[in-house]
Amino acid sequence: MVAASFAVALFAGFSGFSLLRGASRLGAGQRKLLVVVAAIVLGGGIWSMHFVAMLGLQLPLVFYYDGLNTLLSALVAILMVGLALLLLHFGRRTRARLALAGAVLGGGIAAMHYIGMLGMELCGPVFGVTGMAISLVTALGLSNLAIWAAYGARSKRHILLGTLCFAIAVVTMHFVAMAGTAFYPEEAASTAGPELSNAILAMLVTLSSFVISGVALLSGVSFFTPPETVVPFTAPFAAPESPAAEPPRPEVVAPFPRAEPKGTSLPVPYERDGAIHFAESSSIAAIRAEGHYTVIYTGTHKHLCPWSISEACSRLGPYHFLRVHRSYLINPSHVSHFQRTKDTGVCFFKEVDTLAKAPVSRSRLAEVKSVLGV
């Protein structure tokens, strides 16, 4: 049950954080919808983790739960997680805002736990002040860590790290709080809602865990799978119009219109702190594909750019950027040296701490050598 509760928290964290990747670039209506879905998944994950773990609680007497308190604990978790996500996706993402969102998330985890515990009937929980204080500090600290990990930078690695921190925050807070809780038998029960036995609760958390796991699988499809390259269909046996006619040449259609150079540099957009900034193309050493977006490397920094690698290639081609690999676009003026490796090659960069090198594919090797004069 302990292992299963951690797995539920892990799936919920991944689903919620990956669903919101790139949400800041969407319209307000789409963002609100994604925040609602993510809040239900994350809040429901906190609730499911708690009651999966509670199914493993063994006491020397029978107990059950007040249905109204159990429902209220889930709704409080969803609302507080939703508030934290609204802080993160509406408005500038400053340090104070990240800290506030982490505090709200931690408060939601703690509130869900203690409201859910108060729903126990025939067996009342007794909370020690020290145990409550330690569990609250644990929830706030680890929730802040999860938010900073997931939203410090919106890369895949940071989202996965934030997912792990979220799961650790929920599970650790629960068991720290349980360690500081004692129980006493009650002679009579006074429920405000329907009675929920462990058997009924097991069915509910199984259903919620199934939904969360399904959302995690659906999110993982787009999160881990690189974008597909669409190849235009050509007939395998195309007959010529006449015996002497030339075979038709394949038509090459660019996905984006090629931009005409305006000046010596082009502003390239990137996201930071919930706002769109611009970097001059002359300061960019390389651009790497990252799903439907790209990462730009400038000196000691790297940023997420809303352009796809194809759009970046089309827009920056006139400014002497060179496509060296299906996932890499480089600025030759930042290349320090070139190394041949059998049928491929590697370009190394000068004064770029965030990216040491970029691979050169075999099909582009001749063009790269020609541009670099080697």
UniProtKB/TrEMBL annotation:
The keyword Glycosyltransferase belongs to this UniProt entry's keyword annotation: no
Domain MHYT, first and last residues per copy: 1-184
Pfam families assigned: LytTR, MHYT
UniProt keyword list: DNA-binding, Membrane, Transmembrane, Transmembrane helix
Transmembrane regions listed in the UniProt entry: 6-23, 35-59, 71-91, 98-120, 126-147, 159-184, 196-218
An MF annotation (GO) of this entry: DNA binding
PROSITE patterns reported for this sequence: HTH_LYTTR, MHYT
HTH LytTR-type domain boundaries: 268-374
UniProt name for this protein: LytTR family transcriptional regulator DNA-binding domain-containing protein
Lineage: Bacteria, Pseudomonadati, Pseudomonadota, Alphaproteobacteria, Rhodobacterales
